[in-house]
Description:
AMMECR1_dom_sf; Glycoprotein, Type 4 Pilin; AMMECR1_domain; alpha+beta; Dna Ligase, domain 1; 31% helix; 201 residues; 6-stranded antiparallel β-sheet; AMMECR1 domain-containing protein; AMMECR1_N; 6 helices; single chain
Amino acid sequence: MPSTIEVATVEHCYYCFDVLISYLEDKKPENPQFTNDEYPLFVTWKIETHGDTHLRGCIGNFNAMSLHNGLQEYALTSALQDRRFNPITLREVPRLTCSVSLLINFEEGKDYMDWVIGVHGIWIEFINDHGHKKTATYLPEVIPEQGWTKEEAIESLLRKGGYRGSINDKVLKSIKLTRYQSSKAQATYKEYIDHKENSQA
């Protein structure tokens, strides 16, 4: 398996900060200075609270998108429309960290166990209790952060995707799994401000 290609950069994260802050202040964001290649992508916001860091929003798209439009769209979607959280406010921005994940090296797994913890993100398709096809994904870093085994990760992913029934061998063997890798960059609000000040000096 080839190692992860370094394609995500801190400039992508700085742009997400610029987009979010501009939106919250009703201003127009600056034009991005990086290339406009196409990737499936996710934007993740985390917030520091009392010395601990917590997820504040994470949404992305598995369809390849141009980076300029894709990052602009998902910087806001993940910050304001993640149904698990209230929209991010301007007051919270100084405590935020932004991560950009560009997804690469997609491969169909032989079965639901055909992936490596810490290397692959996983995307599954399955049939829910009502006979409808559902999907769910975890980015590569999520499973090591949670300390899950493969079995625990798959079970959690089924629940995340809305499966409420008993998880048995038949259900597991019916899963269609796609594994992928992620090039990830992250930046804190302070790093974003330092970058802005340096670029204007």
